[in-house]
Design a protein that fits this description.
CATH architecture of the largest domain in chain A: 3-Layer(aba) Sandwich
Oligomer: heterodimer
Structural class of chain A: alpha+beta
Shape of chain A: globular
Radius of gyration of chain A: 23 Å
Shape of chain B: globular
CATH class of the largest domain in chain A: Alpha Beta
Number of strands of chain B: 5
CATH topology of one domain in chain B: Rossmann fold
Largest interface: A-B, 16 and 12 residues
Helix content of chain B: 40-55%
Largest sheet of chain B: 5 strands, mixed
Helix content of chain A: 25-40%
Largest sheet of chain A: 7 strands, antiparallel
Number of strands of chain A: 16
Structural class of chain B: alpha/beta
CATH superfamily of the largest domain in chain A: P-loop containing nucleotide triphosphate hydrolases
Chain lengths: ~375, ~210
Amino acid sequence: MLNTFKIQNFRQFKNLELSQLRQVNLIVGQNNVGKSSFLEALEVYATHGSPLTLLKLVKNRQEDWLSEATRLSRGLTHHVVRHLFFNHKIPDLAEAGIILGEIDSNHSLHLHLAAYQRQETEGMSKLVPINPNQIDEGIPEVELFLVAEQASQTRLLFQLNQDDSMSHTASRVFYNSKSYNFNLKNQVVSTTHLPTRQLAALWDLTSLTDLEADVIETLRLIDDRVSGVAFVEDINRDTTDPENRIPLVKLRGIAEPLPLKSLGEGMYRLFCITVALVNSEAGLLLIDEFENGLHWTVQPKVWQVVFQLAERLEVQVFATTHSRDCVDGFEQAWSRHPQQGTFFRLEGHGTEIKATEYPLETLSDAIEMDVEIR
Amino acid sequence: MSRTQGICQKDTDKVLLVEGNNDCHVVMALCEACGVPETFGIYQCGSDVGVLKRLNALIIRPQPPNVIGVLLDVDNTPITHKWQSLQQKLQAYHYQFPPQPQPGGTILESSQEEPKLGVWLMPNNQDPGMLEDFCANLADPNALEFAKDCVERASEQHLTNFKPTHRSKAIIHTYLAWQDEPGYPLGQAITRQSLSANQELAVSFTQWLTRLFA
């Protein structure tokens, strides 16, 4: 579990430090202040800077767009992942890049530019790192990479080719998921749920385990007739269609199983959150805009389940919200688990984004006295 | 959208938090009588606990007020109790509290970017009591003494049923019953000069307001 977290040079964050994190953490703040970016930073950290994650984050925000006009303005560090860096610029060789990790930890992840030279030894081509200071001295054929440095290991993520640095599809991706010494298992529930294919895969891991009962129990918060869930193939769709498996739900008293989505947005959202939660054991669960689709009356109960399951399964939950009702529900659950929650607001202070942490008592006071918190 | 709801619930950038409507009207009447500039709004929080909770929530709010004043009754406890409960509530912030409240009202600055904070403990930052004890200081001493005797005698003859903590309320309202017009509430009694805003304690209070919200 992360007890603290530090973000440097990532998205809006020049330098953000959170000195206290717990099992279940809720983040509020105005639009574009960095709530989603904060979750992204956690995802990058949890995947050790996986290039697939980096590219996914860029693509999610359509920052991978390309036009004929921009194609002409290519530069060496014009790679699309520049958008993940503060000010949309990959720092120069001598500068610090994105740094993510616990405060004062020697396991921080550092994504930065690095120079290498290809050397031929015994017929094998090998990349050797070069000190940035030596580059001016005329070393030929320097190759630039975006690298991930963590716990004295350095992994090459992308080669920033001079001839085609624009398009990530053309640049080489170096990625070996087996090379990690440690790994955090994590799930991400975006503002618009999980992709159906991923949801189906996670349900396959859940059904027939003890955790299945936890998920069904949680769905009963919205409709107490729910007795089971199964994914079936929709033969209207092509087998390659990622949406071709759809979740059905069995309701007590109704003979025919019904599509889960027919029971409303809230039911589907709750299913996504719970399935993701039970599949994040000993890892992270990141939920963007927790409240989406959930009626305010059900939110305190959902938070209660989140606190309970998170503790039992050792999942660390980070969620964002815009909703006062969501904060109210969170506060009710946090009051029952006072040692397990944190609540903070991200806000701009001049050019910097800062986090303001609320003790439980202060959050309770603000809700009771109807004072703005977001 | 304006969050202003009524004259005693002003959510302004400089705000005085008070326990109830009586406090609100007394402060407004004193300000008018003493010519205190109208630089702040008053917000009544329903109770002493309400004042502390709202204060706690306002300091950390997005775009918090610049200045917050709080008016709290000491009630029938040693003054250190109220002083400590205030400090306790604000322990996560960065205010340096003196060991005792200042007799002329306390004003605190934070070492961080937190609102300027003023504290007045009713009646006089030293003694136990409440708003009514403060107002008793503004009454004509002879008439008040007589009102006290009346309450005492009524009490001895078992004609009263107020709670012991409300003795000063009973006295001031007995006093007010004989003014022109009888039975005005405290705020209006100041405006009608049945209670004098020129008394030392009233002057000290309005000077504290002026310094705080200047």
